[in-house]
Amino acid sequence: MPASSYMSNYVPILIQLILAVGLAVGLVAISELIGWRRRSKVKSAAYECGITPQGDANRRFAVKFYLVAIVFILFDVEAVFLLPWAVVFRQLKWLGFVEMLVYIGIVLAGFAYIWQKGVFDWNQPERAEGGPASPIH
Amino acid sequence: MSMPTGIFILISLIKCAIALFVLLTLVAYIQLAERKIVAHIQSRVGPNRVGPYGFLQPAADAIKFILKEEVTPAAAHKLLYLMAPMISVVVALVAISVVPIGGTFHLFGYPTQFQIADINIGLLFLLGVMSLGVYGIVLAGWSSNSKYSFLGSLRGGSQMVSYELALGLALIGPVMIAGSLDLRQIVQAQSHIWYIIPEFVAFCIYLTAAFAETNRIPFDLPEAEGELGAGYHTEYSSMKFAMFFLAEYVNMVTVSCVATLVFLGGWHGPVFGPPQLQLWLPVFWFCLKVGFFLFLYIWVRGTLPRFRYDQLMAFGWKFLVPLALANVLITGVVLSVMK
Lengths: 137, 339
Description:
heterodimer
C-alpha cells in the first residue's frame, strides 16, 4: 500500500478497537446469559451500608471539583503545546527556548495566582459569601 | 511497505488476537501474583487451594465472575451504567496497541514489528487514549446513582486529571532529548544511555503520577474502602465489576510499558547467541523490565498506607506539577548549553 501507507499504519488500531469492543460486549453478554438472576426490591436499591437510601445521589457537590477541572484544561493545553515544541527543540536553538520561557512564565503567573487564591487547599472548608460550608468533600 | 493489503490485515489481526490473549492471561496472573506477594508481605500464605500453589485460581475467579448475579440498581441510568465498564476496558485495550515490545521479525516472509500499530506519534496517541479512561470512572459513578459511587467518581475524576498533567509534563524531558514522539525512535535514542540517568527527576514524577493515574495504592482514593464502600464501582457486580478490574490492570501494564520504553531503554540489553535468540532476547529484556514495574506496584501496595485527599491534591498540584515544569526548563537549558 504505497499511496496510503501513512494512514494504513492506523488500520491495526482500528482492528484492535473492533476486537476490544467485541470482547467488552461478549463479556457482558456471557454473564447476562449464564449468570444467576433473582431480583428483589431491596437488592436493586443503592448500597448505603444497609440503611434505606435517602433521596437522589446526583446532588450538588463542592465547587472545588469544577475548579480543578478548569485548571486542568488550562494546563493541559499548555502540556499539549509543549509536546510538539519538545520534538523540534533541537532545531529551534536559543530563540525557540526563550520564547517558550516567556510562554511558561505567563502560564506560571496564572498558576501562582490560582495557588494564592487557595484552589489547591483542600483542607480549608470553602465558603460562599456568608453562606454555609459546602456539603460534600 | 510493499506488503499486500490482505496479508497486512491478516498479520495485524493475528497480532491483535495474540496481544489480547496474552494481556487477559497476564492480567489474571498479575492478580494471582499480587495476592500471593501481598500475602507473603503480611506473613500469610495467600490462595493455595485451587491447583498446585493456587495456580488455577484465576480460572476459578473467571468462572465465578461469569456465574455471579448481575445487579443493576433500580435508580441507575441503564445505558450509561452498562457502557461505563465497556469504555474502561476498550480504552485500556486500545491504548496498549501502539506499545512496541521488540525489534522486527518475519511473518509469512514479510518483515513486521513486535507491535500492533507502528505510528509515528505513539506517545501522544498513548497519552490521549489513556486520558479517555477517566470517562469510564466518571460515568460509572454518575450513572449508578449511589452516593458512594458518586463521591468515588468525583474523587477519581479530579485525581486522574490532576496527575495526568504531571504525567504528561514528566514525559516532555525525554521527548526533548530524543526529539521524537515515535516510541521506537525514543528507544533507539537510548542505545547509549537510558533516560533514567539524565532524566531521573522526570522518572520519579512519572512513576508517582502513574500510580495515581491507575488509582493504585497509595493513591487509591476513588475506591477507599474505609470511607466509600468500593468507590465508583460500588454498585457493580459480576462481570461488569471484573471489567473495571481488567481495565485497571491493563492500564498498569500500559504505564509500566511506557516507563520501560521512555526511561529504561525499552528492549535494550545484552544480545548474543544464534539469530533466533537474538530476535527474542530484546523481547525478554523488555518483559523483564515491565515485570519489575509490575512487581513494584504490588510491593508498594503491600507497604504504603493511603494518602488523605487534601494531601493527594496538594502533592500533585503544589509539588509534582512545578517540579515537572522545572525539569522541562532545566532539560532545555542543559540541552542548549551542551549543543
